[in-house]
């Protein structure tokens, strides 16, 4: 298990219970020859605000939707559950409402931090500490799972993050000049240090004969307004090592793309709709990757 940027004591103190979102999952041992199964939740995005009915966004409903998904996932024999970001939409107090819902989860929990998480956390830190990095990797049953941090280089960084904010501004301006759809202030990018770390993980997995799956908040493909600002760089890297899949959230409509041997799957956002509770169970074995969708999420077969 690799966490290249553990929280500092000051970050941990300021974050309080939210610090648990930066911890890698506490995995249980598993036989190498059995199917690996994990649950997926994307974008609960809780806030104590009225719904945006015009855009089909129901912020308070996370407190009723998320327990439904967790109850269903608790009934499944899973190795872990991953939330692909945006546990909250805004307001630091939102975490005090949403985190207790996850206390009901009986499986190990891996978390990807989304752009709304990053913005909320950055506002709370208020330049008292740098916005923490949240990329790490963990291994289980012949698989290596890489969790990417798309807020690594973003407009949510503060002065204590070095030149990350300036890099984000520069990249955004370049993409705007090129009229790229992902040139949006609410998107982020993966920085050079993280890219080098990801390649090290891929090299190590290749050396050990491990299969690789990637989790991120920002989609990498297809090319839309919601992809990571430097998605092309990461796609080129990941596909050059023939990783098995990449799962993301952020674009609540969901999506699918295949590049080479790699499936890029964007999961539907739980925030959307008054009653829909989309989530998924993913099965991994020697045959391939199978995504079983629930509550409106799309199922995908073996690739």
UniProtKB/TrEMBL annotation:
GO terms for molecular function: 2',3'-cyclic-nucleotide 2'-phosphodiesterase activity; ADP-ribose diphosphatase activity; CDP-glycerol diphosphatase activity; manganese ion binding. Residues 36-253 form the Calcineurin-like phosphoesterase domain. It comes from the Bacteria. InterPro entries: Calcineurin-like_PHP, Metallo-depent_PP-like. This is Calcineurin-like phosphoesterase domain-containing protein.
């Amino acid at each position: 298990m690799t966490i290249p940027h553990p929280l500092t004591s000051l970050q941990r103190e300021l974050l309080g219970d939210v610090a648990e979102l930066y911890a890698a999952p506490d995995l249980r041992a598993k036989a190498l020859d059995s199917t690996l199964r994990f649950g997926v939740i994307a974008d609960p995005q809780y806030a104590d605000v009225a719904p945006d009915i015009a855009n089909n966004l129901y912020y308070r409903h996370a407190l009723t939707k998320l327990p439904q998904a967790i109850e269903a996932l608790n009934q499944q024999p899973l190795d872990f559950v991953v939330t692909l970001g945006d546990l909250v939409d805004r307001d630091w107090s939102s975490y005090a409402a949403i985190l207790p819902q996850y206390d009901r989860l009986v499986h190990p929990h891996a978390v990807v931090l989304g752009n709304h998480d990053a913005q909320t956390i950055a506002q709370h830190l208020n330049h008292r500490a740098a916005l923490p990095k949240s990329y790490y990797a963990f291994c289980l049953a012949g698989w290596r799972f890489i969790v990417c941090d798309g807020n690594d280089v973003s407009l949510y960084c503060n002065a204590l993050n070095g030149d990350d904010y300036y890099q984000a501004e520069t990249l955004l301006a370049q993409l705007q000049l090129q009229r790229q759809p992902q040139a949006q202030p609410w998107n982020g990018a993966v920085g050079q240090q993280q890219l080098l770390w990801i390649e090290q993980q891929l090299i190590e997995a290749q050396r050990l004969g491990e299969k690789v799956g990637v989790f991120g908040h920002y989609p990498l493909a297809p090319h839309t307004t919601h992809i990571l600002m430097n998605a092309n760089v990461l796609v080129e890297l990941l596909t050059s090592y023939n990783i098995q899949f990449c799962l993301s959230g952020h674009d609540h409509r969901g999506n699918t793309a295949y590049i080479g041997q790699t499936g890029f799957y964007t999961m539907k956002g739980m925030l959307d709709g008054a009653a829909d509770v989309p989530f998924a169970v993913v099965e991994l074995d020697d045959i391939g990757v199978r995504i079983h969708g629930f509550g409106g999420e799309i199922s995908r077969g073996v690739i």
